[in-house]
């Protein structure tokens, strides 16, 4: 229960920071903001400043999905080689716990990514930076891959 509360609060705090960034900066944004960046991080597409709302909207979607999957871990699509229905009850419960942990960790890191992309997009849109920091995005994506791989290995070893 404590893990659930911690991850939920983490996602809520990240969402709150993201939405406060959007609210405090929205009025100062130009009508067109960068919405797509090339491999070097430079903007190559611009659209309405309303597009900045995509990031907090994605965070809300992640939060809702994580809560649904927490209550119903059997909805999660895991590899077919792990047949949950064939596992003994204690292993099935352990598997569900791993699924829940993976979902919350992944969702928290994705919320961090949305916050980071919001901040970087705002900097570029306001002329404070010429491009987004690709290394920051890469670091967050690596942080996303590590717990997913770790928990996938743990799930495989449970059988």
TrEMBL record:
Query: What Pfam families does its record include?
Result: DUF1648
Top-rank lineage group of the source organism: Archaea
Q: Does the keyword Transmembrane apply?
A: yes
Q: What keywords are assigned to this protein?
A: Membrane, Transmembrane, Transmembrane helix
**Where does the secretion signal sit in this chain?**
none
Membrane-crossing segments per the record: 51-70, 98-117, 137-153
Name all DUF1648 domain ranges.
14-58
Please report the name of this protein according to its UniProt entry: DUF1648 domain-containing protein
Q: Which organism is it from?
A: candidate division MSBL1 archaeon SCGC-AAA261F19
């Amino acid at each position: 229960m404590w893990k659930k509360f911690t991850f939920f609060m983490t996602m809520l705090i990240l969402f709150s920071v993201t939405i406060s960034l959007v609210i405090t900066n929205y009025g100062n944004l130009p009508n067109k903001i960068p919405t797509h960046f090339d491999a070097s991080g430079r903007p190559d597409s611009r659209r309405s400043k309303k597009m900045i709302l995509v990031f907090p909207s994605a965070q809300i979607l992640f939060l809702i999905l994580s809560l649904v999957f927490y209550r119903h871990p059997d909805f999660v699509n895991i590899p077919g080689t792990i047949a949950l229905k064939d596992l003994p009850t204690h292993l099935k419960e352990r598997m569900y716990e791993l699924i829940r942990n993976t979902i919350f960790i992944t969702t928290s890191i994705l919320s961090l990514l949305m916050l980071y992309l919001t901040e970087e997009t705002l900097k570029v849109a306001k002329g404070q930076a010429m491009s987004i920091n690709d290394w920051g995005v890469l670091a967050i994506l690596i942080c996303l891959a590590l717990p997913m791989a770790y928990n996938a290995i743990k799930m495989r070893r449970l059988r």
